[in-house]
Specification:
Helix content: 10-25%
Order of helices and strands: HEEHEHHEEEHEEEH
Strand content: 15-25%
Radius of gyration: 24 Å
Shape: globular
Strand order of the largest sheet: 1-2-5-4-3
Number of strands: 9
């Protein structure tokens, strides 16, 4: 059986009421937002109740909305500034503020029901706490284990109750969380071989920041179709 989005949405509205708020989608996907304190209760219901039966968690991902809706560069002035993070020299290790914007960091859960041939996405915001923290769903979907470690590694989001929360993609001595929007493009440290010590060591990054400018199609003769035709005739 294939469960349509609208049928599933009606079941969700009847079961959870105002706990879940539907998020508009431009591509017809079914997404709901909920409070992080309701995550475990809702997740268990979506997995266990026959009206839903989302027995599979296919992904968990972090999101940083720090610069959401704004451009890093504008077409008219890109040649002079480039990507702003590429020219900033001050390293960003961890945000020292006591709190974040409550809707800066989010965790998104992608669910699949094989029985009902249906998909569902859940989104929760981590709140204003620094570091951001939400409850782990490993006890509900075991596949969340590595997904949550990835979100921790790349975004610095902590998952309360995770059995082994440690980095999974970056190296052991890596500093910071590279998918945060304020993380410097050149990083904070680099790995090099020290001949005196006879081993690999970490040191402050030595890469020089540079301006990254996107290719801009110039409005001049070499892009003129007429001149191109003349050159071909010659």
């Amino acid at each position: 059986m294939s469960l349509s989005n609208e049928t599933l949405a009606a079941r969700i509205d009847a079961r959870f009421g105002q706990k879940l708020t539907r998020v508009d989608s431009t591509c017809g996907e079914l997404t709901y937002q909920l409070d992080k304190d309701d995550l475990i209760e809702v997740a268990r219901a979506l997995r266990d109740e026959p009206d839903f039966h989302f027995e599979m968690l296919i992904d968990v991902c972090g999101v940083d909305y720090l610069t959401y809706g704004s451009d890093e560069w504008t077409t008219q002035s890109a040649a002079g500034s480039g990507y702003s993070r590429g020219v900033e020299r001050e390293p960003v290790i961890l945000d020292e503020a006591d709190t974040f914007d409550p809707e800066r960091f989010a965790v998104v859960y992608h669910l699949l029901s094989l029985r009902n041939n249906a998909r569902l996405r859940l989104r929760i915001f981590t709140g204003d706490a620094n570091p951001p923290i939400v409850k782990s769903v490993v006890d509900i979907w075991n596949s969340a284990n590595w997904f949550e470690r990835e979100a921790f590694d790349l975004f610095g989001i902590l998952f309360e109750g995770h059995p082994d929360l440690r980095r999974i993609l970056t190296d052991y001595g890596f500093i910071g969380h590279p998918f945060r929007k304020d993380f410097p493009l050149i990083g904070n440290v680099e790995v090099t071989y020290d001949p005196d010590k006879g081993r690999v060591v970490y040191q402050p990054v030595t890469i020089e920041p540079r301006t990254l400018v996107p290719k801009v199609i110039r409005d001049d003769g070499q892009y003129s179709a007429a001149l191109g035709d003349e050159a071909g005739d010659a």
